[in-house]
Sequence to fold (143 residues):
Amino acid sequence: MLRDRRGTSLVEFAICLPVLVVFVAAVADFGKGLSSKYELQQSLNRAFEMSQVDGSANDYSELSAEVASAANVPLANVTSQQWSECNGKVQAWEDDCSSGTTSRFVRLTVKRTYKPFFPAMSFFDKNSAGEAVIGAHASLQVR
Fold:
């Protein structure tokens, strides 16, 4: 009976199947989260590109609404920072540099959540509801 090898491959398959299922589920969950992050980054890039098409000087305050619309998230999920730099020193957006060139910067951050397939195996930070928190940010020197 010990020399009978019939059914060996079936037993090996039964042992390996759970490992393969967990691996495929983990890859699918990670791919879903990564895709969500890329969508957020794309919405930021789109907003910055659109702001550069309009050649007028503005305060870039409309970018947050543009990102929220493109990313399909509430406006509260988008934060905006604006600052100026004069000779390497950070200052308020409105301040101009008296001795040199003023560089102005805009930084946008957007966040969204998604429900992972298997919350216990999630590769991303989770909130209290067990949803993964995905974020993206981008900065642009506008002058």
User: Anything to note?
Assistant: The two ends are 82 Å apart (CA to CA). The beta strands are 78-86, 89-91, 102-114, 132-141. The first helix runs from residue 8 to 53. Helices lie at 8-53, 63-71.
